[in-house]
Design a protein that fits this description.
about 600 residues, alpha+beta, Penicillin-binding protein 2a (Domain 2), Beta-lactamase, 2 domains, seven-stranded mixed β-sheet, five-stranded antiparallel β-sheet, PCN-bd_Tpept, Penicillin-binding protein 2, catalytic activity
């Protein structure tokens, strides 16, 4: 029989256990709520109170590649080294004999400095300064921009209070090759020039973040990490051929220096597509070492510079004359070396001569200013102006290069008596090299002008390919008119004064020279010229247009200075793209009637 006295302790024990179980259950429920149900809310609260830490996850800026996929601009990883001053101290390492050895802080600092290029004292001072400012400091910047090699060397030291953050940096594997087009970024990664700037919407990466808690020893607390991933930039493919660009940059540097010119350019365009295959110039910029170049050499004069095209414009005037029905290749005018026209304008040729009965083809062969003026007056000024606009003169090319110039083509209402004639032979107007090459592309392409292009596509990080819309082709002159002009320009190279200098064995070529005056402070400079030589090949079925310009050459002051450069440039173009030699002979046109 159980007495009351024996039941009382048992009851108290049961009650006590029940209370303990209830308390434990409350704690368990609360713990589950904190660690599971409301875990993210509490992490957010702690991060908001500054308990957490965050790291930027850098996306990789996209590459710029040539038409064959060769890298012109890319990204590499660099590392920023940081110290945790609050944990700096001696290290325990295992010696060669397997025994534990203590390495003091000054020795560790010396080992770090031997890799980063700092002295032991410099490294120790960084830590001391941080602790002086904040005795509990957990951050001190050691050095930025370390290479992967140095990062690995530091990591091999096994220093727990040394941390390294990686981030992308820009590199240009071929240095100055296409540097005038590619441009460059600043030390902070911001695009500053060229296509790096103009195509930033394609190339730019979107950075992500990594937020977390870490303890005093720097270890990340499990369950506190939140990651927003970075998105890499796209790949920008150009129409440029890297190897051809390299060769032509060497060539124009040599030609510019040999002729004592201020600067020079070579441009290559595919006649049937309008794609720019090379745009070389000298001086230029190496994006890896921008400060080594003068300010004026850090971009592209090809797109931003303008010049008077001189006699290269006679090819355009001939196309207008033929297409409008005013005259043909063998039509004639009588022209002297200097003439005064009925409106009072005075025009003269580079070389004096008596009255000559020139054909239109002969005017181009001898580059007669008087002769082309007489053919030009057969076409109304408004009609000539309309043709020039359709050829693209006075308008940006649409390539999309930042800061591209539009040149100068004044409306007919602003043409005075002299301008009426001067525009026919490339004075009183200013063009860019892309404008001039684009006009000759139209002539070489049977009268159809295709907008020039420098960008092939942008391939996003997800594989999406975006192509560039350059606009619709324009029929500037008829195919028949263009073919007549092609034939006349071929005769310039066959019968003109530079025929031997520009000839390439096995190929038919056509083109025109230009010697433009150089304006300064509203007046023409005396005795110096901007010289141009532009042509296409093969003349029987044009595939490529090549132009060479020199600014104020002093070795030879006429466009003859450009002949050797043109011949070598065109030869390389034909080799690069494996253009077959011509299997026909040119039709010789009469120079005089």
């Amino acid at each position: 029989m159980t007495t009351r006295s024996t039941r009382s302790p048992r009851r108290r024990t049961v009650v006590a256990l029940a209370v303990v179980l209830v308390v434990l259950l409350v704690f368990v429920v609360r713990l589950v709520d904190i660690q599971v149900v409301s875990a993210r809310e509490h992490v957010d609260d702690s991060l908001a109170m500054g308990i957490g830490a965050s790291t930027t996850l850098y996306g990789t800026r996209g590459s710029i590649v040539d038409t064959n996929g060769q890298t012109l601009a890319g990204s590499i990883l660099q590392y920023d080294a940081e110290l945790d001053p609050s944990n700096v101290g001696p290290l325990t390492r295992t010696g060669a004999d397997g025994e534990k050895v203590e390495v003091d802080w000054p020795t560790v600092a010396a080992q770090i400095g031997a890799i980063t290029g700092q002295s032991a004292e410099d490294v120790q001072k960084i830590v001391a300064d941080a602790l002086e400012a904040n005795p509990d400091s957990q951050y001190a910047e050691l050095v930025k921009g370390l290479s992967t090699e140095k990062y690995r060397a530091l990591a091999d030291l096994g220093i727990p209070f040394l941390h390294m953050k990686q981030h992308p940096a820009r590199t240009y594997p071929d240095g100055a090759v296409a540097g005038n087009l590619v441009g460059f970024v600043g030390a902070d990664g911001q695009p500053l020039e060229g296509l790096e700037s103009a195509q930033d919407s394609c190339l730019a990466a979107t950075d992500g973040t990594r937020s977390y808690h870490r303890g005093k020893d720097g270890v990340v607390i499990p369950g506190t990490e939140r990651v927003t991933p970075a998105v890499d930039g796209g790949t920008l493919e150009l129409t440029i051929d890297r190897d051809l660009q390299w060769y032509l940059q060497q060539l124009i540097a040599e030609q510019t220096q040999n002729q004592g010119a201020q600067h020079g350019q070579i441009m290559v365009v595919e006649a049937k597509t309008g794609k720019i295959r090379a745009a070389a110039e000298y001086p230029t910029v190496d994006p890896n070492n921008v400060s080594a170049s003068a300010d004026g050499d850090r971009s592209s004069r090809i797109f931003r510079g303008t010049f008077e095209p001189g006699s290269t414009f006679k090819g355009l005037t001939a196309a207008m004359v033929v297409d409008s029905g005013a005259a043909g290749a063998t039509s004639t005018v009588v022209a002297s070396g200097r003439e005064t026209f009925p409106n009072g304008a005075v025009v003269q040729d580079a070389i004096g001569h008596g009255a000559t009965t020139y054909t239109l083809a002969g005017v181009l062969m001898d580059s007669s200013n008087v002769g082309i003026s007489k053919f030009a007056e057969m076409v109304p000024a408004e009609t000539r102006y309309d043709y020039l606009q359709r050829f693209g003169i006075g308008e940006v090319s649409g390539v999309g290069f930042p800061g591209e110039a539009s040149g100068i083509l004044r409306p007919v209402s602003e043409w005075d008596n002299q301008t009426f004639y001067n525009t026919s032979f490339g004075q009183g107007v200013a063009t860019t090299l892309p404008q001039l090459v684009g006009a000759y592309q139209a002539i070489a392409n049977d009268g159809t002008k295709i907008p020039l292009s420098l960008i092939e596509s942008c391939t996003r990080a997800d594989g999406t390919v975006e192509t560039t819309d350059t606009g619709e082709p324009t029929q500037v002159v008829s195919a028949e008119s263009a073919e007549q002009v092609q034939q006349m320009l071929e005769n310039v190279f066959v019968q003109g004064g530079l025929s031997k200098a520009v000839a390439i064995d096995g190929y038919r070529l056509g083109g025109k020279t230009g010697t433009g005056e150089v304006a300064e402070n509203g007046r023409y400079k005396s005795g110096v010229y901007f010289t141009t030589l532009i042509g296409f090949a093969p003349a029987d079925d044009p595939e490529y247009v090549v132009a060479v310009t020199l600014d104020q050459p002093t070795g030879v002051r006429s466009s003859a200075a450009n002949a050797a450069g043109f011949q070598q440039a065109m030869t390389q173009v034909l080799k690069t793209f494996r253009v077959m030699p011509s299997d026909s002979q040119p039709v010789l046109l009469p120079k005089t009637g």
